[in-house]
Amino acid sequence: MSHHLVVFDSVFFCYPDGTEAIKGVSFRITHGESVGIVGANGAGKSTLLMHMNGYLIPMKGSVIIGDLYLDKKTRQEIRKKVGVVFQNPDDQLFMPTVFDDVAFGPLNLGMSEEKVRERVDEVLKTVGCLSLKDKPPHHLSAGQKSAVAIASVIAMRPDILVMDEPASNLDPRSRRQLINLLREFEHTKVIASHDLDMILDVCKRCIVIKEGRVVADGPADRILSDRVQLEENNLELPLSLQRL
User: Fold this and answer.
1) 0.90 exceeded by the pTM?
2) Residue 141 contacts residue 174 (beta carbons within 8 Å)
3) What would the DSSP string read from start to end of 103-137?
């Protein structure tokens, strides 16, 4: 299915302060793939994700989402295909109540109010936050905010789900619920995280980024069990693979 395709072709991006964040990145993600993006802080993971729905646009090279080349004219259409969960949930939660935040996307897609109420209840129940429906988001804990931000994106039922450190604020139970949820998400998903155990649990493929370049790309179980390669990229073996 072409609308689930993500293609980076020799993508370069430099921030206004001169930081070269991405340097010639190329890869192809096809329908239904679950891909983990890993690397040390500052490797370029978040910059990479922000190209996937047009928050950033390449300075050189091209990004294709589905059958659309990313540019200023196409990014609004691309954002309908790609749902992004940011690392900081405060970047996504801006409405008076949790219900309003989760309902915002479906309402803008033109769904009826009845269908929106059903969708909101469904996704909040999925992330374990149905009881928070009427609460103001700024009254929530960090973990609750993360779960609601995830719900607000899933409510849109995107073709491609992109997540930046989705488990960083979650307690162990919420983290496990998230892993189960991601396993059930049938479409393409791309997850950047330092939680290598979660990547191992959820993703079949893993891409390692170092200083803005792809240095490894292959089956997650092989990449994440290569101690030498991980250490070369300031990463450690997942806890589940470490032997004391």
Assistant:
1) no
2) no
3) HHHHHHTT--HHHHHHHHHHHHHHTT-GGGTTS-G
CA nearest neighbour of 240 among 195, 207, 182, 209:
195
146, part of any domain = no
Q: Please give the residue range of the domain that contains residue 196.
A: 2-92+161-237
Task: Indicate the angle between helix axes 142-154 and 172-184, nearest 10 degrees.
Answer: 10
Q: What confidence tens digit (pLDDT) does each residue in 138-175 have? A: 899 888 888 899 899 989 888 899 999 888 777 787 78
* Owner of token pair 């109540």: 97
Number of domains in the chain: 1
- The verdict on residue 69 lying in a domain is yes
Q: Using CA atoms of 60, 63, 67, 70 in order, give the dihedral in degrees to the nearest 10.
A: -70
How many other CB atoms are found less than 10 A from the CB of residue 53? 22
